[in-house]
Design brief:
Layout: H1 4-7, E1 17-21, H2 32-40, E2 43-46, H3 52-55, E3 63-66, H4 78-90, E4 95-99, H5 109-119, E5 123-126, H6 131-138, E6 152-156, H7 170-176, E7 179-183, H8 189-198, E8 206-211, E9 219-224, H9 228-233, E10 239-243, H10 250-253
Parallel strand pairs: 1-4, 1-5, 2-3, 2-4, 6-7
Antiparallel strand pairs: 7-10, 8-9, 8-10
Helix pairs in contact: 4-5, 7-8
The structure holds S-adenosyl-L-homocysteine.
S-adenosyl-L-homocysteine binds next to α6 and β10.
Length: 269
């Protein structure tokens, strides 16, 4: 039971929208504020990557409104979702917009917040643990380590037109940070790896692909930039990719895998 008064949690007021991150998968990674929001919301507008057990934390009677692909029909467009949030708020609902990971890390939370601001709807942003941080932690890969990197680049491997994001300056990215974390990259990983190697990154540099990170089905494949095409083909979505020397720490820090026969199952702790 959350003591909202003790923790100073804000009231969820009617007519407000909270843009909330649900974390990467493991329900235990939900924030207290996110749980509090679930207990107060009238409507929860949620995306495909949100675990059903998290939705079961919603107040009894709350409307659960799926905003992803349904029964082969295409997902609602972003303007449609934003308009729906505005309409629900104007109808006096407490609207919880629940997204996987962090709402504002490759999650269009910024676009939705802009639409709410333009419509004069009051909103709050509740950050979540993004897959590129939580997923690495569950793979035993520190995002930074003083021996390897003092910078990280987070990027998407999927341009808005569906191709490799050509707007990115790949040579600059290759030189910019020793550790690269790629979202939505599985499809274009072989061509991204080629661009990075052409820009000077070593073929031998380690790469980890973390599939279904922090869930009971988490799988991690470790390979190298030069061999990545083979590894990428074997991995299920969603997956996060990390390139850089930090990947080697997993040999020692794979705490999920170290937990015995069911060790690969974070939910069984
Ligand atoms: N807002 C989300 C990202 C949404 S984009 C966040 O902050 O995490 C969707 C991409 O996120 C996926 O293609 C994948 O690259 C990554 N992702 C989300 N959940 C994941 C998970 N449990 N395991 C691995 N990758 C995940």
């Amino acid at each position: 039971m959350i003591d909202s008064a003790l923790l100073g949690l804000p009231d969820f007021e009617p007519g407000h929208v909270w843009l909330v991150g649900a974390g990467p998968g493991d329900p235990g990674l939900l924030s207290v504020l996110a749980l509090h929001a679930l207990g107060g919301a009238d409507v929860v507008v949620y995306d495909a990557l949100v675990d059903p057990r998290i939705l079961r934390q919603a107040r009894p009677g709350a409307v659960l409104d799926f905003a992803g692909k349904r029964g082969g029909r295409p997902s609602p467009s972003q303007p449609d979702i934003s308009a729906r949030l505005v309409d629900l708020a104007r109808a006096g609902k407490r609207v919880l917009r629940l997204k996987g990971g962090d709402p504002c890390v490759f999650g269009r939370g910024g676009e939705e917040a802009l639409a709410l601001a333009a419509a004069g709807v009051r909103f709050r942003i509740v950050p979540g643990i993004t897959a590129g941080i939580g997923g690495l932690a569950y793979a035993g890969i520190p995002l930074t380590h003083r021996d390897t990197n003092s910078a990280v680049t987070l990027l998407t491997g999927h341009g808005s037109d569906g191709g490799v994001p050509d707007g990115l300056d790949w040579p600059a990215i290759a030189r910019g940070a020793p550790v690269l974390v790629l979202y939505m990259a599985s499809r274009h990983l072989p061509s991204i790896a080629k661009r990075l190697m052409a820009a000077g990154r070593s073929r031998a540099e380690p790469v980890a692909i973390i599939s279904k990170a922090t869930t009971a089905e988490q799988r991690v494949v470790v390979s190298s930039l030069g061999e990545i095409a083979v590894a990428a083909a074997a991995v299920e979505a969603p997956s996060i990719v990390v390139i850089g020397e930090v990947v080697r720490f997993r040999e020692t820090l794979d705490w999920v895998g170290a937990r015995g026969p069911r060790g690969e199952d974070p939910a069984s702790i």
